[in-house]
């Protein structure tokens, strides 16, 4: 019976992780090749338009831009604080006695090595989430300064202004990407945590997460093309779309 339980860990756990990794690889392909069919891609496109609108008149839109970025910094700060707090909690559980662990409901491998592996990966997951959210705060902090630079007063060359808006938009998008990755690390922690109670809860959690994330990440409308022409006649085309789930 013990051998069969160990086989469950060796079979169901890799399958669950494969489903999660395969889904996110597929999502990455969709974001790169078909951005208007994913929520992340549509939001990235609209953030670029938002940055251009904010930088058109810094004196009027500067406060709004900084407040919006500050809200994003607070969201990243909340996730980072939660991740480091949970990491400390997992470290305490790793040092608990093995007799306390045996009283938990576990259907699977109950050896000390199995528990150490489970707690270790949960700890790694939260530490990765903490580092990713720190990077998100870093990019948002840079963007809050860059977005208020009065480029029209510093240089009359409109092409230079256009490139600066693109750079600021890229910085804002990088902050959002790191925030999304940090949130995904929290998502990965759910099946890892349920793995403590056995491979079956972990496997069903992976399936539920993939189904839930699919409806949260995918849009069901065709995108539209937007052409932006500046004063120098340069045309910049991007794709956009709206999300509907």
Structure, described:
The protein is mostly helical. The chain is about 75% helix and about 5% strand. The protein contains 8 helices and 2 strands. Strands 1-2 form a two-stranded antiparallel ribbon. β1 and β2 form a beta hairpin. α5 packs antiparallel against α7. The C terminus is likely disordered.
SSE map:
Layout: H1 2-33, H2 39-56, H3 58-94, H4 98-102, H5 112-146, H6 151-154, H7 158-194, H8 199-217, E1 224-229, E2 235-240
Antiparallel strand pairs: 1-2
SS-derived structural category: mainly alpha
Q: What is the typical, i.e. mean, pLDDT?
A: 81
Our Rg estimate from Cα atoms comes to: 23 Å
Number of strands: 2
The succession of helices and strands, N to C, reads: HHHHHHHHEE
Largest sheet: 2 strands, antiparallel
Residue fraction in strands: under 5%
Helix content: over 70%
| Poorly predicted sequence stretches spanning 5 or more consecutive residues | 225-245
In angstroms, what separates the terminal alpha carbons?
45 Å
Count of runs of 4 or more consecutive helical residues: 8
Shape: elongated
- What is the strand arrangement across the widest sheet? 1-2
């Amino acid at each position: 019976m013990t051998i069969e339980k160990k086989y469950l860990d060796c079979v169901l756990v890799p399958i669950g992780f494969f489903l999660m990794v395969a889904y996110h690889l597929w999502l990455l392909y969709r974001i790169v090749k078909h951005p208007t069919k994913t929520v992340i891609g549509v939001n990235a496109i609209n953030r670029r338009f938002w940055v251009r609108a904010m930088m058109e008149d810094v004196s009027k839109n500067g406060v709004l831009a900084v407040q919006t970025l500050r809200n994003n910094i607070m969201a990243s700060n909340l996730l980072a604080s939660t991740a480091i707090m949970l990491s400390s909690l997992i470290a305490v559980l790793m040092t608990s006695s093995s007799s306390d662990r045996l009283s938990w409901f576990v259907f699977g491998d109950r050896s000390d090595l199995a528990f150490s592996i489970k707690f270790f990966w949960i700890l790694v997951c939260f530490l990765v989430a903490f580092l990713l959210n720190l990077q998100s705060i870093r990019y948002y902090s840079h963007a809050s300064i860059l977005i208020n630079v009065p480029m029209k007063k510093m240089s009359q060359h409109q092409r230079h202004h256009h490139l600066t808006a693109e750079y600021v938009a890229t910085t804002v998008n990088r902050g959002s990407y790191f925030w999304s990755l940090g949130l995904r690390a929290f998502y990965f922690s759910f099946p890892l945590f349920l793995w403590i109670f056995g491979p079956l809860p972990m496997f069903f959690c992976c399936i539920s997460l993939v189904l839930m994330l699919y409806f949260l990440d995918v849009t069901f409308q065709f995108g539209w093309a937007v052409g932006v022409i500046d004063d120098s006649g340069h045309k910049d085309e991007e794709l956009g779309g709206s999300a509907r789930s």
